[in-house]
Amino acid sequence: MRDNRNRPQIRILKDGPYVVTGKVPLYEKIITPHGKSNYVYRDGRELPQAEFYTLCRCGKSKNPPFCDGRHVEAGFDGTETASKANYMDRIVYRVPGPNLELLDDGRCAFARFCHRKGGDAWELASIAKDEDTVDEAITAAIECPAGRLVIKDKDGEIIEPEYEPAIEVLQDPQMKTSGPLFVKGGIPIISSDGDTYETRNRVTLCRCGHSKIMPFCDAQHINKDFVDGADDTNDKDKGGSNGISKT
Ligand code: FES
After folding, report:
1. Is residue 245 a part of any domain in this protein?
2. Residue 113 belongs to what domain range?
3. Cβ of 69: how many Cβ atoms within 10 Å?
4. Which atom of ligand 1 is nearest to the CA of 110?
5. Is 246 inside any structural domain?
6. CB 107 less than 6 A from any atom of ligand 1
7. Residues 192 and 77 placed together within one structural domain of the fold
8. Which atom of ligand 1 is the closest one to the Cα of 218?
9. What's the order of all strands across the beta sheet hosting 202-205?
10. Per-block average pLDDT, block size 10, for the chain (247 residues)?
């Protein structure tokens, strides 16, 4: 039998966790305001690295971001409700501009990287003429971790950042919540029914257990005040604190 453990892959278990194989690097990143209108990622805790691990999908684990089996006693319903159609077939909004075209599929994780100095991704794409504004519009689109926003240049070529396969566990102290899993670099995501979702450079997976478009994040973690409790174990002296704690 072929051993798939060498290849980066995320397999979703029915009403259970994400099974990650292929030695995918795992980091914690903290969404941090930078200046008046920009955001950056700050490094969070150092997380253990492994060939194979399982990540919590129900939001109940006491050992976040890893699964500790609590989905069973919680009676977690992890039914996958997201469309499996490709991004280009799910676009709900297009913003044409003089140099760029912005595409939007509406799957928002509310990470807010689309807000930049001078406007949001939609405004910037519609007006971007000079180099600075074009750069700002591109940054506003490509830093969207959910992959909601995709931007094309005037030749119709998609502009994407180059990401190596990795998973980033997001924390969002400004919103007093823990965020989704930012899956980078084209890691295949296999549904619990065996189908594969479109492999993309940027997507966010729900880990609060409340998304209405499971397995993807739709920002319900903010409505539900989801806090994973990882802050309890952070070493604040090392600057690793995510700045939020479970109440
Ligand atoms: S983590 Fe965002 S909706 Fe669950």
Report:
1. no
2. 87-159
3. 16
4. 2
5. no
6. no
7. yes
8. 3
9. 38-43, 26-34, 166-172, 177-184, 202-205
10. 73 98 98 87 96 97 97 97 97 96 97 91 96 95 97 96 97 96 98 98 98 98 94 43 58
